[in-house]
Amino acid sequence: MRNSSRSAVDPFIVMDVMEAARRSEEAGRRIIHMEVGQPGTGAPKGAAEALAKSLETDALGYTVALGLPALRQRIARLYGEWYGVDLNPERVVITPGSSGGFLLAFTALFDSGDRVGIGAPGYPSYRQILRALGLVPVDLPTAPENRLQPVPADFAGLDLAGLMVASPANPTGTMLDHAAMGALIEAAQAQGASFISDEIYHGIEYEAKAVTALELTDECYVINSFSKYFSMTGWRVGWMVVPEDQVRVVERIAQNMFICAPHASQVAALAALDCDAELQANLDVYKANRKLMLERLPKAGFTRIAPPDGAFYVYADVSDLTDDSRAFAAEILEQAGVAVTPGLDFDPVRGAGTLRFSYARATADIEEGLDRLEAFMKARG
User: Fold this and answer.
1) What is the DSSP letter of 345?
2) Can you tell me the distance from the alpha carbon of 200 to that of 224, in angstroms, rounded to the nearest whole number?
């Protein structure tokens, strides 16, 4: 059968790395996972308990397309608790993970052929989802002096219909402060471009609180998820905040694309929002892991790294070590038993000289992984 031109998207390389690691484990090797951006912990206990209780009394059928009203209200309250933002819960849309949010946002805001700016390096699925929808991703090569975040000069005169930013970012973990976020919003709006803020790593910050775009404007789409801070990757539940006049637009698309986010996941997500003690304990693990990574990666020979303000990644420039990050990652997996992600996932032009290391797993695993990396690099000379 023939395929559409829209289907010709690139693979998500980290998933290929995961599969290679799985095959090695199947063959009996112990692999340290520094490739995937997935917490080593499961959903908070309170979330699992709430779902178990609900399963005894509720059929868990369809919810309305916008999501459980109680969950939307609780998320709106979260914005007051975290940022001091008074948010109307009617603007909150529950989605099947942040991926569902991207599909809804891109479909609601853009027409076929529209150009949407994304920072490079950046989350690879932005690019591929845009392509699959018949849109044109425009990579904005970011500079180290700008903490690998876009600045207005990066998209001046590019005729963009939209700008997508992420803070904390994947793969770098760098963040935008109020001034930097405000400058991007102002520049996007000045050229008539819709502004989308990916805030999936909010809650995982180390030295300063992440800034939500909603502190600065209501004329934006904000996308978030329960996958990272709330440790619920496989539950596939997230949310969007949209302007009031966009709610019905998104609702109509969601009704047809998804019907609703999984009811069971919404029940668990509502309970997870009140599991602060467990979630902060997870954050303490990430803090310890980050400290280890920043101390020991340079000792292993990975000296040029972006400053990880949030999330649980270190992005390293390894162009002094290789011009083929995919082959280098395969070598590390084969010889050291550590799975890492080639930068080509995040930056098709410059990613051949970068690697991403995730430190989302248990501290003992991170320590063992760093031991193996040091030994590998020493043997490699």
Assistant:
1) G
2) 4
- Residue from 102, 126, 138, 172 nearest 312 by CA: 172
Partnered with residue 315 across adjacent β-strands are: 356
Q: Please give the single-letter amino acid code of residue 339.
A: A
Q: Between β-strands 338-339 and 32-33, what pairing exists: parallel, antiparallel or unpaired? A: parallel
Is the pLDDT assigned to residue 306 strictly greater than 90? Answer: no
DSSP 296-317: HHHHHT--EE----BTTEEEEE
d(CA 222, CA 245): 15
Contact 157, 151 (CB under 8 A): no
Six token digits for residue 164: 């997508």
CA angle 217, 219, 223 (to 5 degrees): 90
Q: Is 264 helix (H, G, I), strand (E, B) or coil?
A: helix
Ranges assigned E (strand) in the chain: 32-33, 92-95, 115-120, 136-141, 162-166, 194-198, 221-225, 238-241, 304-305, 313-317, 338-339, 341-342, 354-358
Q: Is 84 left (phi over 0), alpha (psi -120 to 50) or beta?
A: left
pLDDT tens digits, one per residue of 168-224:
999 999 999 999 999 999 999 999 999 999 999 999 999 999 999 999 999 999 999
Axis-axis angle for helices 276-300, 363-380 (nearest 10):
10
Distance set, CA 206 to CA 39, 172, 202, 360 (Å): 16, 14, 11, 14
Q: 283 pLDDT exceeds 80?
A: yes
Residue 381 above 80 pLDDT? Answer: no
Q: What is the pTM of this model?
A: 0.95
Alpha carbons 145 and 166: distance in angstroms, whole number: 17
Residue 276's contacts (CB-CB under 8 Å, 6 or more residues apart) are none
